[in-house]
Amino acid sequence: MYRVLLVDDEILVRTAMRENIEWRRLGYELAGDCANGKEAMEFVKNQPVDVVLTDICMPYVDGIELSRFLYENYPEIVIVIFSGFGEFDYAKKAIQYRVSEYLLKPVTAMELSELLTRIRRKLEQEKRQEKKLRRMERATEEYLKNADMIRSQAISSLVTGTSDPGQCLERLRELDILFDSEYYRVAAVDIDTYSDLYETDTKERRESALMAFAVCNIVGEILRDHRAGIAYQESSSCIYIVFETNRPREFLEKSGEICREIQEAVREVMKLEISIGIGTYVRSPAEMHLSYESAKAALDYRYLLGGGLLLDMEKSRGEEVSIYEELREIAKAVRAGRSRELSAVMEKIRVRICHALVGKSRACMYLQQIVRTLGEVQESMLPDDGEARLEREEILNRMIRERTFVSAFGIVEEYAVSVAERLGEQNATSGSLQARRALDYISRNYQDPDLSLNSVCSYLGISMSHFSTIFKEETGSTFMEVLTGMRMEKAKELLENTTLKNYEIAGRVGFSDPHYFGVAFKKTTGKTPTEYAKERR
Question: How far apart are CA 84 and CA 86, in angstroms?
Fold first, then answer.
């Protein structure tokens, strides 16, 4: 029977729940009921409780504070919160205290019974898991007592280079372990769930050594089947393999195949993802520590490439990357507010960094360069009131805290797009953009004899007086001066390169009156259209 404590400041609610729920049939015993969180705290200090059903709004100590107290002092207790409709968002704040369920008042006996059934099944499953964990702990304790522990320590001393190689080899010979091949390489096997990729709690850290023990057994069986080497578990949750061969070229592919087989077996049997880093070849047992270090270094690339990694350091070499040109492209795209172009450049940078196999510190350095470039562009186009600088600092702090390059890159990319969108909005209202749009419109419509200041302003959606001001500031000319100049340049091209009549050219460059065209052309060039054609054709 699981013990339940009911906490609610309304006595009628407590009475109804006490009398209308078939506690024993559901597998529970009602340990007691309290009118507020303060009473409930004292109750759990003195009596064992498995489940606490609590209202959210109560005098003295409310349901949120009670949840925090239970989370910090009795994390094994399951917490269920009842809340009114208007309190539901407030109740969600308790998610940080691992509240199991939320129920919206009023709660029916059927709803509560179904909830209690789900909780009982969950508690029973956890109890089974705990029993399984205890069995594995006992097995591990037995393992630590037997000769395998002595064997693992002896191999580890040789592989890590912490003891004299000669003494280590002599001790291993006494254990019937001989290293008499021509080439060796070390592989590091680590369970992703318990690695730096994730934040682990005390229970998971406790599980890690046990799971590693089980993985080590799987690795050992596969190595024995292939007669390829020996595996051992260090004091940490990491497993190491010592491959040995007399044919390194042939064995290069074979060692990778064996490691893939190990990954598939662990995935199938234990439902776990593991990463494997295979170190470089060495020629003697005394040099094994060099291969060991490179195998460990390979696992560090999980930050860049993610979990489930299989990386052979004989095939992979990191390289320097310059993203100077890409940073220029980023600045250009951000200034123009072109988010799509920016995303394409960011993706190109991501692929280059991943292919280069750089370490975490260098990968973070590249991301910092991107943030710095974004900041410089933003400061050059928008007044800096201090908030933008604080935002950049927050982005950098968040980026560094991330456990994978993918998530860190995502933070920077999201920030880059937001900056581009902000500057795009700024550009959309700027005189420079309006002038550029007007020039584009004129170049596409100069042939229209009805093109006017009014039609351009109607296209841009601004007043003629405002447009005249910004257009003059941006181009140094009036609308008519630009339009006439553009028409005259087009007329010159036609006079030089075609046999069209003057009236035909006039029509093609937006003049409905050929005489007026001739007057305007002579005023601009000092020659009549006919004179100009004779000189230039």
Answer: 6
Q: Which of 373, 392, 422 finishes a domain?
A: 422
| Residue closest to 537 by CA, chosen among 488, 492, 506, 502 | 492
- In 3D, which of 144, 150, 146, 172 has the Cα closest to residue 288? 172
Residue, of 149 and 118, whose pLDDT is higher:
118
Q: Is this structure's pTM higher than 0.85?
A: no
User: Which is it for strands 78-83 and 183-191: parallel, antiparallel or unpaired?
Assistant: unpaired
Lowest mean pLDDT among 142-151, 326-335, 419-428: 142-151
**3-class DSSP assignment, residue 275:** strand
| Contact (CB, 8 A) for 13 and 61 | no
Q: Is 237 among the domain residues?
A: yes
Supply the CATH number for residue 46's domain.
3.40.50.2300
d(CA 474, CA 451): 20
**142, containing H or E segment:** helix 109-145
**Kind and range of the H or E element at 510?**
none
Residue position matching structure tokens 């008042």: 105
CA dist., res. 529 & res. 514, Å (int): 10
Q: For the chain, what is the radius of gyration of the CA atoms?
A: 38
Other CB atoms within a 10 A radius of the CB of residue 515 amount to 11
Residue 13 CB coordination number (10 Å): 17
CA distances from 356 to 99, 216, 279, 317 (A): 44, 31, 18, 8
386 DSSP 8-state letter: S
Q: Which residue has the tokens 């269920």?
A: 80
Q: What is the per-residue pLDDT for 86?
A: 58
- Residue 383 Cα to chain centre, angstroms: 30
User: Which residues are 306's β-sheet partners?
Assistant: none
Using CA atoms, how far apart are residues 176 and 470, in angstroms rounded to an integer? Answer: 90
- How many beta carbons lie within 10 A of that of residue 462, not counting itself? 15
CB 258 within 8 A of CB 221: no
Tell me phi and psi for residue 386, to 5 degrees: 100, -30
What would you measure as the largest C-alpha separation in the chain, in angstroms? Answer: 114
Q: What's the pLDDT tens digit per position in 158-206?
A: 999 888 989 989 888 888 888 989 999 999 999 988 887 776 666 666 6
Range of the domain at 89: 2-125
Task: Write the pLDDT tens digit of every residue in 239-265.
Answer: 999 999 988 888 888 999 999 999 999
Q: Within a domain: residue 186?
A: yes
Residues 402 and 477 reside in one and the same domain? no
